[in-house]
Amino acid sequence: MDRKKLSRRDFLKATAALSAAGTLAACGAAPAAPAASTQAPAAAAATSAPALAATSAPAAVTSAPAAEVATTAAAAEVATTAAAAEVATSAAPAAAGQTTVRLLTTHGVTMSPFIRKSLDKFLAQHPEVKVDWEDLTEGYYDRLNVQLASGTLPDVVNLRSFDMYDWHSRGNLYDITPFLTADPDVKPADLVDAILKSCQFEGKYYGLPYDASVIIAFYNKDLFDKGGVPYPKDTWTWDDMHAAAKTLTKPDQGIFGFANVPPYNNWLVEPWVLSNGGKLINDEHTEWTMVGPEAEGALQYIVDLSKKDKVAPAPQPGSTNAVNLFVLGKGAMYVSGQWEIPGNRDAVKGFKWDVVAFPTGPKGHKPITHGGTYVMYAKTKVPEAAWKIQKWICAQPDWQANVYGASGYSIPALKKVSSDAWLKPIAAGKPPANAKVVLDELDKAVPGSLWPNFQKISSIMTEELDKIFVEDVPVKQALETLKKRADQTIKEASQK
To answer: Got the DSSP string for 429-495?
Structure first.
């Protein structure tokens, strides 16, 4: 997933500085930029937040755990603290009887007040553990690779569900099955099943999910009202979406049915392909299968919205400065993840908006989910203590409700807190009114596919599919070239 983009971890920070004009800061930076957001949930890498360190000392920031979002003032305070500690970690030695666990996250400055507060609670309950916490954002995965190569990776690490296949196949993950089996406080059934499956290999568990994301559609209720188009229902279809887009497009007013071309050149295209009967990769992870009539039909539907029907503006591949038509009230719909809801609450002014389920395709309703995981490094020397912090993050209410739920951008993986945490803003009168559809879709979703060498294939996908718009390459040709390059990458990965 990865040209240089901001993560969901930083988009609350990004919205604080959002300009009134609603221009994009960067792809995936914030809900202020839905038109170009292609960043993965449980983000790959944010940009620009310095390293942080946490000890058992009380947190300097006093943001209430139940706060909807970290305040700008709190974020600024953490940023100042972080800047002073940019190259520092918790260097103080562990006290007698304490075991030191190194924890690495990639949540960014805005999330730090929530993390610090929850870590303080953990340390109060587990005085036998000392947590050296560091948060890296810029170039996160590049740094992980360096740490892996040097054998210095921390004990507990933040990964995306996308990465689990590669990390497991290379022997980098610790088998936590014995801990999970023996711990009465943690039951697999209590966690979001679809993301938990990305942590399972050959019947064993190599990580735990901490959040989950699904793809939905956003729409401008005012434009639907003015166009005389009924609001979409969660049972709507591709045909319904297409018909609404045609009716709502008003060239003379600069209004498009779609604020942007739906994501086509990264993992976000998968529900489209599945809904048309295709697959991205086979079940054995040995062959790229996003090719043939089903995949071509799905991608052609997306491409035609812009190139043929003119109901969406032409995409600007590689651009990080496109105008956000949805925020400006000039785009009636767009498709993205639920992580953009909090930013839209801040950015959208002057019109009413809501969300609806991803539309049902010719071959059915096929939502997918990806999310974030925490894993234990295979070479950790303190697995018992590391399990305690991994469990605290992923399977205990405090971190789940207050770090992920209270911030508003993420669906906690722990089911018993996810509903209350996710719906709390709606109960307080904040949009979107139909936010519950996110939880409903998550119940129906299947795990998004995992690919060998995910990072490289993602780059190839972008390179080849962007050519459809940049060079007028036919959809069939672009997909066939993508398959050749992806299959070669898969083969190379299997030989390592």
So the answer is: TPSPTTTHHHHHHHHH-EEPP--TTHHHHHHHHHHHHHHHHHS---HHHHHHHHHHHHHHHHHHHHT
Q: Which two tokens stand for residue 412?
A: 């906690």
Helices within 396-433 (DSSP H only): 397-399, 415-427
Rounded Cα distance between 37 and 72, Å, is 23
Give the pLDDT confidence of 350-371 residue by residue, as tens digits. Answer: 999 999 999 999 999 999 999 9
Q: Which three-class secondary structure state does DSSP give residue 379?
A: coil
With contact defined as beta carbons under 8 Å apart, do 153 and 147 qualify?
yes
The CB-side HSE value for 90 (13 A sphere, CA atoms) comes to 20
- What CA–CA distance (Å, rounded) separates 241 from 217? 10
Mean pLDDT of 230-256: 98
User: Helices (H), strands (E): how many in the chain?
Assistant: 18, 13
CB atoms within 10 A of CB 307: 17
378-382 long-range CB contacts below 8 Å, 24 or more apart? 378/171, 378/172, 378/173, 378/174, 379/151, 379/153, 380/155, 380/156, 380/174, 381/155, 382/99, 382/100, 382/101, 382/155
Break the chain down into helix, strand, coil percent, rounded to 5. 45, 15, 40
> Which pLDDT does position 17 carry in this prediction?
35
Both tokens of 167, joined, read 């990390």
What is d(CA 211, CA 399) in angstroms, rounded to the nearest whole number?
Answer: 11
Asked whether 328 and 33 are in contact (CB, 8 A), the reply is no
**CA-to-CA distance for 446 and 371, rounded, in angstroms?**
12
277 exposure class (CB count in 10 Å sphere: 0-12, 13-18, 19+): middle
Strand (E) positions, 81-125? 99-105
Which amino acid belongs to residue 431?
Answer: P
The 8-class DSSP code of residue 402 comes to I
Q: What is the pTM of this model?
A: 0.79
Alpha helices in 151-229 (DSSP H): 164-169, 177-182, 193-197, 221-227
- Residue 171: left (phi > 0), alpha (psi -120 to 50), or beta? left
Dmax (CA) for the chain in angstroms is 74
Contact 105, 76 (CB under 8 A): no
Token pair of 138 as six digits: 């810029």
Tokens 């210095």 sit on residue: 152
Torsion, Cα 445 449 455 458, to 10 degrees, reads -80
Coil, strand or helix: which one is 173? strand
Task: Say which residues have a Cβ less than 8 Å from residue 121's Cβ, sequence separation at least 6.
Answer: 398
Give the model confidence (pLDDT) of 41-53 as tens digits.
Answer: 433 333 333 333 3
Distance CA 19, CA 25 (A): 9
Residue in the structure block whose two tokens are 């929530």: 114
